[in-house]
Amino acid sequence: MAGEFYKKDLTDIFMTAVNRVNPESMLLNQCSLDGDTLTVSLHEQTEKYNLGDYNRVIVIGAGKATARMAKAVEAILGDRITEGLIAVKYGHTEDLSIIRTIESGHPVPDGSSVQAAEEILRLAHTADEKTLVINLISGGGSALLCMPYKNEEWECTFAAKQDTTKLLLECGAEITEINTIRKHLSGIKGGRLAEAIYPADSLNLILSDVIGDRLDSIASGLTVPDSSTFQEAIEIIEKYKLKKRMPTPAARIMMWGEAGTIPETPKPGNPIFEKSRNVLIGTNLAALKSAETAADKLGFNTAVLSSQITGEASEAAKFYLGIGRDIRRDLGMLQRPACIIAGGETTVTIRGSGIGGRNQEMALAFLAGLKNEQGIYFLSGGTDGNDGPTDAAGAFAAADIYSAGIKAGLSIQSYLDNNDSYNYFKQTGGLLITGPTNTNVCDVQIMLVV
């Protein structure tokens, strides 16, 4: 396997994984309308709703994959939908005829994120016992819906929420840690959307972008009980030494919350969740298993390692490279070339001023160790098609890319130190460009050993 051929196999396997978790096709397979009966059936979970019992059907939601989810719901329910509104990342849109779309900021919220949260919350508050609310939730919803917490006395400003999000993204905190803080600075997350919807029935269709598929972490748990506390949020801030860097309005919310002056997010056992049903429609593991099937058809000995890879992207790269070298040493015993598949969501601690994302960072760290070693080919990509604030889904690592860098006089370590993986791979032909995929189930790593 030489030249560009490895890129085709890696890309084909990756896109098979992405297409497996296309939320439109999944919902069309999992949901049906027979007369007045709406049925959602997935594995051992089945939810049924008699639409004749409701005067209104409202569709709301947020996430990078939510537009495609909304397209499926429109196809299934048509004019049964009274009205709807979703928030998506800029560019992650679909042509919808009933449900309105607001495009907003990700990974850092912007003014449109606030507008989307306010309008969706306002619509939720109109729901009553004769209303069915269908929530379409996917990864990215935390930033796309931003409503800084406020009451008669206390307020977290939008600027403080923005700055706090930036701090958390740069310090290397894991997504569950970031969302714990987001929930406690928000007027819509951590079950507070469910609180606004009550007493209406809600059907929450959820696409997971979170390690372990924790419903209380996906989009910061808009419709599920929140077991985290202000105290835990403060411990995370202290863990990453952010206390002195936190914007004053956000720090005050945390302090008042810990003191009990501000009410906690809705907890398990709260009656508002009795009328809320959550259905997990797609996961990273489902994507990985589909990739495994594709690799097997291409003639590879294939193994799925895990859907829960976390930690620093550069450290994960060393782990994968070590496995690749072990396999290559014993390749003769396998009779076929090997394909290793894994997924999850790593982090990057920002030290420089470059541009990139966790997948490109991982691929560049992999390349730093691989150098011009032959026979090992690696790809790390985000299933949403956007790795960090770039137009790339991820990047490839292989000997020919290393050689291109040497020829161009590029120092891998300098680009790593500056967190500038995008510009390294842009100059060496190593970027994976898919465009927005309108799905989102974390990241996928694929390694071929031949």
UniProtKB/TrEMBL annotation:
Pfam families: DUF4147, MOFRL. Gene3D superfamilies: Glycerate kinase, MOFRL-like N-terminal domain (3.40.50.10180), MOFRL domain (3.40.1480.10). GO terms for cellular component: cytoplasm. The keyword Transferase applies. Residues 338-443 form the MOFRL domain. It comes from the Bacteria. Keywords: Kinase, Transferase. This is Glycerate kinase. It comes from Candidatus Thalassospirochaeta sargassi. The lineage of its organism: Bacteria, Pseudomonadati, Spirochaetota, Spirochaetia, Spirochaetales.
